[in-house]
Amino acid sequence: MLIFLKKISMKKIEQLFKKVNKESIVINKHKDGLRNYLLSNDYFNKEKTKFSDFRLAAVSLAFSIFIISITFFFASNEPKEIALENNFKKEPEIMLKTLNLAKESANEDLANDEEILFNKLIKKDNVIISQKKWQEQEVIVLELLEGDLKTIYYFNKDKNLLLGSEAYEVLPNNNNNNN
Amino acid sequence: MNIRDLVEKSRNKDKEAFSELFNFYYDKIFNYVFRRTLNIDYAKDITSNTFFKVLKHLDGFKWRGGDNSFNAWIYKIATNEINQYFRKQNRYRLIIDDDDFNELGDFGEEVKKIEKKLENDEYFLILNKSMQQLKPIYQDILHLRYFEEMSFKEISEILNKNETTVRVYSKRALEKLRIVLEKDAYIFKEN
């Protein structure tokens, strides 16, 4: 069988591998035990993840994104409120300043609107302008006659604040309805 | 049924298909591991760990290299386990924690038969003794090439190496083996 020599060719080494007994060796008890263990594994009881699960997740995700977008969209339509809310989280002094500035700004806007209204009204031909005392203060009165409807506007002396207004139906014999 | 069908059915939780797949590969993997370790107890543990990992990662397996991918994949897991065994030696442990499986009892009679078979296989004993003196990568290549009879392409997939590199390593491994055999003055008489 085996003899001891010195020179070995590569070919002979390859032949040596071929001479090895390749008969399979098996421990049946181990094989059966391992198979039973693997088949009783949780792997076979788990539900396989299906494509429909991913589809459902994608729909949920899209719906969530839609809701979040809507929330941000409406929130962005009220920037002043958000700014004020944020400022209230800061120091009280800054908060007060911000609030006053906001109020002044709002009043300014209002005054501008009423000044524009005054200027528009006095340009009309059917408007009579007068000055009198109304509710214990000097006011400028604008009387607007449109058909059988008379509207009276009471502005402050600076003509930029509407203090009140009244509307009357003008009767044929009653041309002097202003109080 | 081919391996691809068995793997796909197993992934769909078909126990019968997995059982068939297991039967096909158990003998191959056990023999491969036993030839590398020459230790029945460790061969059992390494084979068990290999199949446990196969089941654990079966859903993540991909057919990257065609129908032979699964063969390469399972051998890759087994080879990694073998290398872990060589690194850890007697610290290598079975990862299956199951009382029923761990208490399978001894395999006395079957082990004795295997040992007797091995004692009579002089060619294998000489080769194995010499191969153990080589670098692990050379051992991997020689075992996969000459005992598992794999192509260089399959070996390259298992070892994550370029096919040309595997060819070069294979040649070097044989040359190193020849040196070891000559040093030990072994040769065989042709029939």
Describe this structure in words.
With 179 residues, chain A is of the alpha+beta class. Among the domains of chain A are: 57-88; 92-169, no CATH class. Chain A contains 5 helices and 5 strands. In chain A, strands 2-3-4-5 form a 4-stranded antiparallel sheet. Chain A is rod-shaped and about 135 Å long. Residues 174-179 of chain A have low confidence and may be disordered. The mean pLDDT of chain B is 87. Chain B is 72% helix and 1% strand. Chain B is mainly α and 191 residues long. Chain B is built from 10 helices and 1 strand, in the order ααααααααααβ. In chain B, helix 1 crosses helix 2 (15-37), helix 2 (15-37) runs antiparallel to helix 3 and helix 8 crosses helix 10 (163-183). Chain B has 2 domains: 1-120, Orthogonal Bundle (Rna Polymerase Sigma Factor, Chain: A); 121-191, Winged helix-like DNA-binding domain superfamily/Winged helix DNA-binding domain (Arc Repressor Mutant, subunit A). The interface between A and B is large, with 42 and 55 residues.
> What's the rounded overall pLDDT mean of chain A?
75
Radius of gyration of chain B over all CA atoms, rounded: 18 Å
Shape of chain A: rod-shaped
- H/E order of the elements of chain A? EHHHHHEEEE
Structural class based on helices, strands and sheet pairing of chain A: alpha+beta
* Separate helix tally of chain B: 10
Summarize the helices and strands and which ones pair or pack:
The complex is a heterodimer of chains A (179) and B (191).
Chain A: E1 2-3, H1 10-19, H2 28-39, H3 51-76, H4 79-88, H5 92-122, E2 127-134, E3 137-146, E4 149-155, E5 162-169
Antiparallel strand pairs in A: 2-3, 3-4, 4-5
Chain B: H1 3-11, H2 15-37, H3 40-57, H4 69-88, H5 99-102, H6 108-119, H7 122-131, H8 136-147, H9 152-159, H10 163-183, E1 187-188
Helix pairs in contact in B: 1-2, 2-3, 2-4, 3-4, 4-9, 8-10, 9-10
